[in-house]
Structure formats: C-alpha cells, structure tokens
Amino acid sequence: MEFKDLVTQRRSVHNFKPGFKLSKTQWHELLEYVRYTPSGYNAQPWTFKLIQEDEAIKKLHKLCYSQKHILTSGNVVVVIGDVKFGVHEADRIVKEWRDLRGFTDKQSEALNASLVKDRAEWKQREMVIRNCSLAAMTLIYAAEDLGLASCPMMGFRQLDLKRELGLEEHELPIMLIALGKAGEEELERLPRKSVDDLDR
Length: 200
What we know:
200 residues; alpha+beta; NADH Oxidase; 10 helices; globular
C-alpha cells in the first residue's frame, strides 16, 4: 500500500468484529516496524504489552470507563514508557554514540550528563510521552498496513491501570491501542481540518 493511501484510509475504529486474536507472529511483525521509530537520544524508552485474555480485557474495560471497543477488539496494546530512561539507558546510549558516531570522551561525558540530569517529574513525563507517542503512531500505521483496525485510547484510570499491570514506579502507561478486525457497520469518518487550518 502506498503511504498516502495508508494515511488517508486509516481511521480509528470503534466497531470491531469480536473474537479475533493476533498471532504471536503478527504481533512481532508489528513490533518489527516499531523498532525503527525515531526518538530523542535514540533512547527508545518504550515497551508494549499485548493483552488478549478475555478476563484481563474485561478488567481493562472497567478501567477505561466502559468503552465498548475494548471488549470487542480482542487485542489491547498498552504503550509503556520509562520516565527514568535517561538513567536506565545511559550506558547503552553513550556507547552507541561513541561506537557509531565517533563521539569523543568530552562529547560522551556531555551526553551522559544530559541523560542523567535531575529533571523535574513533569519534564520527565513530557519527554517520555513525546517519544512513546511517536512509537504508538508507528504501531498504528503498521497495523493498518497489515490489514488490522486500530483505535488509540487515552481515556483510562492511569494509576489503577498501573497497579493492575504491576508496573514499576518509573513505568508510565502512555496510551492503549485497541487492535482487531473492523466490523461491517462502521460510522462515517469524522471531518478533518483543512490544510489552510493547519498552516500557520
């Protein structure tokens, strides 16, 4: 599929065909696309949890204010960001920039200092949300390319979801993505802003 067709045809689906489950092969094919998402520092501060068990999805449904497409999609991806990625990934990141970009000792020290800098909590959250949102968009377009319907979801009880998934203190659930097969009676796509509306 041409990229322009993929972008213009993709839509957020709320009416899924019940019962469809991604295979592990399909899931890993999606993640193979996601691996190439750009990120600040090349930090890649994300992981993805695929939830398919019916009982687990029912629990998610309650935590997502009873949005019905959680139940019918059959597959829910939780995008998880590491707000402490600068500290946790500093050694790997600095080594990559030394080995592949020829960073000097001085440049490497400056990069490491930037990564481990003690930032305010809101700044850490902002950084990881920006990065993980890029990865989530890659996954959504990859799903469309593989013939899967998707719906990104930001309405959920974050702290409750974090407890339900047993996430660490530094792990933040960024968004959920419902994945599956589109139902036949999908609503008309909502209008998009014009190019003139977007051009500042």
